[in-house]
Amino acid sequence: ENTPEDSVILGQGIEVYSVYYAERKYKDIPETPEELDKENADYLVIHAFTPQREFLSDYLQSQNKWIPINVFFFDKENTQAAFVIYGRVV
Q1: pTM listed for this prediction
Q2: Residue 44: how many CA atoms within 13 Å on its side-chain side?
């Protein structure tokens, strides 16, 4: 109910939540930054519970296609991100 029904979500290890619980279309994060640039998705979710693509951290800090729209932290000081949800810049 937090995303439009036709949303497409990119991620790794979140397919159960995206497809079965949220009933949204899900795609795995591509293997390369170039492939990610070509993806037509609405949201990108990264998290600390499964290994993420090695390029993602540097990619997300140096691009302007995705912006963080929500972050959930492990700690009360908000220094250790558990989940980060990015939205595509339109």
Answers
A1: 0.88
A2: 22
